[in-house]
Recover the amino acids of this structure.
C-alpha cells in the first residue's frame, strides 16, 4: 500500500495546522506512521487520496452507525440545506428530535441541544452545580468527558485526590473542585464524598469507551446510585459515545440504574456536529430561560444537524433489531481475534456491548484505567500499522473503542479475522 499523497498532504497540513490535525488522536502519534488523508467514503469503506480503500471500524469515532453516506440520512441533510443552513430561531425539527429522545430515555424528561459532546457535558455540570448549590464534582480516571477545563484532570494513583490538570493552560484553581475516583471501585468514591464539603454531581461513562471498552459493573453502579441519593448528588451518565450505540434505550436499560441526567452526542447527530443533555424535569427547569442557570449557542439545534439526527434516530427506532445483528457481528469479530491470539499464544481480553467492541493485549481482565494501561501498547502499535496496510481501519490508540456499522457484512468480518491472523503472525 502506498501513502505518498497522504505523506505530502500531512507535511503541508503541518505547516498551517498544529500537528496537521484538528483533533490530536488523528495524528497517529501513539501508533506511528502517517494518517491516511480521506477523500471520500461509502458504506463500510473509507478511501484515501492515494486510492487505498479500508473497511472502517472507527466510523468517525462512533456517530455513523449506518455507515458512510446512508441514503436516508444523506437525503435528510440535502433537503434541510435547501431550506436554509441556519436560522438562529426555533424550528419544529428540534422538537421532533427532542421528543424522540425523551420518549426513549426513561430518565430524560427534557433535553437541550448543543453542538458537541464537550459542550453537552460542560453544560450538564454547570446545571448540576446550579441545581444543587454545591461546587465539587467526581469523575473517574480513564473516563473522557470532552476537553473543558474542569474535566481535563488526571489524578495520582490510589487514594482519592483533588485533581491536577492534565494539560498546561488549565489553572489548578479550575480543577480543585474535580475529584477523581477509580472506575468500578466504590470505596474510592466514598473517599471522595468523605473529603468533600459538597458534591454536586458524579459523572461517569456507564459503558466506558475512552480507556478502551470497559463497562461498569452493575453492582458498582447500583452502589453509586445509592451514594448519590444519600448525599443529594446528581448522577450523570455520559452517554456521548454509548448512547444509541450499545442499545436503543440507553445504558440505564442494561444496568437497571437510572441517572438523574444524561449527556448525548455522536450518533444523535447522524454525522453532523450535535450534543445534548437532558434529565429530570426539576433539574432541567433550572436552565435558562426557564431558570437561572445560563447556557446558550448560536448554532445550537442547527436545522441541518437536527435533520440528520432525526433521520438517524428514527431509523434506529424502526429497526431496533439492528442492535442484535451488530452485536452478533462484533462478537464474531472479537471471537475471531481470540482464536487467532490463542493460536499464536498472544494474551488478549475482549469486550462487546451492542455495536461497540474493544480488545486489550493483556493477560488479565481490565476493570479500570490502570489495568488498561498495563496492556501491551507496542504490540498494539504494530498491530494497528499492519492492519492499516492490509486495508482495515482501526482506531489508532489502544484506549479507543471499535464500532460495527450496519454496512459491515458477515463476509467483511470473516475477511478481517483472516487479516488478524496474517498481521499477528508477522
Ligand atoms: C466523544 C466524547 C465526548 C466529547 O464529545 P465531542 O463531540 O468530541 O466534544 C464526551 N464524552 C464522551 C463519553 C465521549 O465519548
Amino acid at each position: 500500500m502506498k501513502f505518498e499523497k497522504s505523506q505530502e498532504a500531512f507535511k503541508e497540513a503541518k505547516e498551517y495546522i498544529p500537528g496537521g490535525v484538528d483533533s490530536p488522536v488523528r495524528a497517529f502519534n501513539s501508533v506511528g506512521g502517517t494518517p491516511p488523508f480521506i477523500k471520500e467514503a461509502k458504506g463500510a469503506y473509507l478511501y484515501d487520496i492515494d486510492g487505498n480503500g479500508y473497511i472502517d471500524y472507527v466510523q468517525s469515532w462512533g456517530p455513523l452507525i449506518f455507515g458512510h453516506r446512508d441514503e436516508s440520512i444523506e437525503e435528510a441533510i440535502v433537503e434541510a440545506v435547501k431550506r436554509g443552513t441556519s436560522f438562529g430561531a426555533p424550528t419544529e425539527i428540534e422538537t421532533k428530535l427532542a421528543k424522540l429522545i425523551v420518549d426513549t430515555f426513561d430518565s430524560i424528561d427534557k433535553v437541550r441541544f448543543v453542538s458537541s459532546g464537550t459542550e453537552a457535558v460542560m453544560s450538564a455540570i454547570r446545571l448540576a452545580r446550579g441545581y444543587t448549590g454545591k461546587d465539587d464534582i467526581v469523575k473517574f480516571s480513564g473516563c473522557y468527558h470532552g476537553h473543558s477545563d474542569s474535566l481535563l484532570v488526571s489524578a495520582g494513583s490510589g487514594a482519592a485526590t483533588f485533581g491536577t490538570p492534565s494539560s498546561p493552560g488549565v489553572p489548578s484553581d479550575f480543577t480543585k473542585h474535580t475529584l477523581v475516583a477509580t472506575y468500578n471501585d466504590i470505596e474510592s468514591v466514598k473517599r471522595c464524598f468523605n473529603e468533600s464539603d459538597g458534591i454536586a454531581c458524579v459523572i461517569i461513562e456507564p459503558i466506558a469507551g475512552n480507556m478502551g471498552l470497559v463497562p461498569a459493573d452493575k453492582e458498582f453502579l447500583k452502589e453509586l446510585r445509592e451514594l448519590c441519593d444519600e448525599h443529594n448528588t446528581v448522577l450523570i451518565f455520559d452517554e456521548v459515545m454509548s448512547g444509541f450505540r450499545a442499545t436503543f434505550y440507553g445504558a440505564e436499560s442494561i444496568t437497571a440504574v437510572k441517572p438523574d441526567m444524561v449527556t448525548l452526542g455522536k450518533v444523535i447527530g447522524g454525522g453532523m456536529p450535535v450534543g445534548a443533555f437532558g434529565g429530570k424535569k426539576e433539574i432541567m427547569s433550572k436552565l435558562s430561560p426557564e431558570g437561572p442557570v445560563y447556557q446558550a449557542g448560536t448554532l445550537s439545534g442547527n436545522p441541518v444537524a437536527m435533520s440528520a439526527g432525526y433521520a438517524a434516530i428514527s431509523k434506529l427506532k424502526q429497526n431496533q433489531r439492528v442492535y442484535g445483528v451488530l452485536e452478533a457481528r462484533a462478537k464474531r469479530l472479537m471471537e475471531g481475534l481470540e482464536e487467532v491470539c490463542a493460536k499464536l499464544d498472544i494474551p488478549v481480553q475482549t469486550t462487546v456491548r451492542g455495536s461497540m467492541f474493544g480488545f486489550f493485549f493483556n493477560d488479565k481482565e481490565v476493570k479500570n484505567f490502570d489495568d488498561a494501561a498495563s496492556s501491551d501498547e507496542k504490540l498494539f502499535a504494530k498491530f494497528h500499522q499492519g492492519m492499516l496496510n492490509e486495508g482495515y481501519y482501526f482506531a489508532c490508540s489502544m484506549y479507543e473503542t471499535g464500532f460495527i456499522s450496519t454496512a459491515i457484512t458477515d463476509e467483511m468480518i470473516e475477511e478481517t479475522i483472516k487479516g488478524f491472523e496474517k498481521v499477528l503472525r508477522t
User: Anything to note?
Assistant: Residues 116-118, 121, 144-146, 205, 209-210, 238, 240-241, 265, 275 surround pyridoxal-5'-phosphate (CB under 6 Å). The chain has two domains: 4-57+321-425, 71-318.
